[in-house]
Specification:
By secondary structure, the protein is of the alpha/beta class. The chain contains 13 helices and 14 strands. The strands form 3 sheets. Strands 1, 2, 3, 4, 5, 6, 8, 11, 12 and 13 form a 10-stranded mixed β-sheet that branches. A two-stranded antiparallel ribbon has the order 7-14. A two-stranded antiparallel ribbon has the order 9-10. α1 packs across α10 and α8 crosses α11.
Length: 348
């Protein structure tokens, strides 16, 4: 079974080897990377990996537009995608944690009944007080998240989707594929969530704008969870803020983005089941002197960028703000303050 992962990157060098090694462990056979405007050595590391046949790298075709959607439009015409049995569109801070069988994508597909698509629900992992960037596996460092079924007061949570080659595709979206127009009811594909249940009609057909990228998370992760490490360390978040969004031009990350994803009320370390094999795979990749040197160069550039940013008053203020920010949204904080005030008034 050939499973191709497609992703866009910009200055993600320190995290590439872990993401590639992890995804090879769960069954990804091919990788298509689109890179743009890298200054930390990401593109050089990918070039070296490509020379060894481990990945393919292309420059992002977008020109001041939506980077990810332009890349996905191009990817559909690349052999590594067109000839794949399954396609997995994801970002380098996303890790598919499979709970069934041998914890691989083929095991997940089998458990779901071999549908034409499987949409896996996000779980956002908090920073949880980790300040300093460390060159260690991300999945080993962060083990706390929001309540899995509720995020920022919402019970519907975004997904990413595995897509089978015979899916009646109009086009790939960042979160899900879209059905070819004009399909009759009996032509609609089998499409499950991460528990093997058929997805809801409004999600399947993109009939409701609130359900295009998400659906209720309760009970949707019995077979697999999509762990999203959007914050990582405080150091890395500052670098991410400076970089901007790889997927959309001129998007900034800020206090709101941080607070929405820094709810660490729930412990979940189940993904660490992969760590022994992941560490062995990383050791093997780094046994290549050039790959190891290019990885170290990316790590060095990442640390130097953080130090450079912290010479600026604006980033010093951001660092202080994020350190003191409540691990909840502003709306949740305001509600708690209101409830406390009511309690005090009632007590008087």
């Amino acid at each position: 079974m050939r499973i191709t992962a497609v992703t866009c990157v910009k200055n993600e060098g320190p995290f590439l080897l872990e993401w590639i090694a992890f995804h090879r462990l769960i069954g990804i056979t091919d990788f298509l990377f689109y890179s743009n405007d890298c200054s930390d050595g990401t593109d050089h590391l990918l070039d070296a990996l490509a020379q060894r046949g481990l990945v393919q790298q292309l420059p992002n075709p977008a020109q001041g537009r939506n980077y990810q959607m332009e890349a996905l439009k191009d990817a559909r015409h690349q052999d590594v995608v067109a000839t794949a049995d399954w396609v997995w569109v994801a970002d380098v801070d996303e890790f598919l944690n499979i709970h069934v069988g041998d914890h691989t994508i083929p095991a997940l597909i089998d458990a779901c009944g071999d549908p034409a698509a499987i949409s896996l629900t996000f779980q956002f992992f908090a920073n949880a007080g980790v300040e300093t960037y460390s060159d260690k596996p991300v999945i080993a460092q962060f083990g706390r998240s929001h309540n899995p079924d509720i995020w920022c007061g919402e019970t519907a949570i975004e997904v990413k989707t595995l897509v089978r080659k015979d899916f009646p595709l109009q086009y790939y979206g960042a979160h899900r594929p879209f059905l070819r127009k004009g399909l009759s009811k009996d032509q609609r594909p089998a499409w499950t969530d991460g528990s093997g249940r058929q997805v809801q009609f409004r999600f399947l057909t993109a009939a409701n704008s609130r359900r295009i990228r998400k659906f209720p998370a309760k009970g949707a992760r019995e077979l697999a969870t999509l762990n999203h490490y959007a914050l990582r360390s405080l150091d890395s978040y500052l670098v991410k803020n400076d970089r901007g969004d790889v997927n959309r031009e001129n998007r900034a990350f800020d206090d709101t983005y941080w607070r929405e994803r820094n709810d660490g009320s729930h412990a979940d370390t189940s993904i660490r089941r992969y760590l022994p094999d992941l560490n062995a795979a990383l050791k093997e990749l780094k046994s290549d002197p050039e790959i190891a040197a290019l990885h170290r160069a990316c790590v060095k550039a990442h640390r130097e960028k953080c130090a450079e940013l912290l010479q600026l008053p604006s980033f010093q203020a951001m660092q202080a703000q994020l350190r003191s920010a409540a691990p909840m949204t502003a709306e949740e904080e305001a509600l708690i303050a209101e409830l406390r005030l009511t309690e005090l008034e009632d007590a008087e």
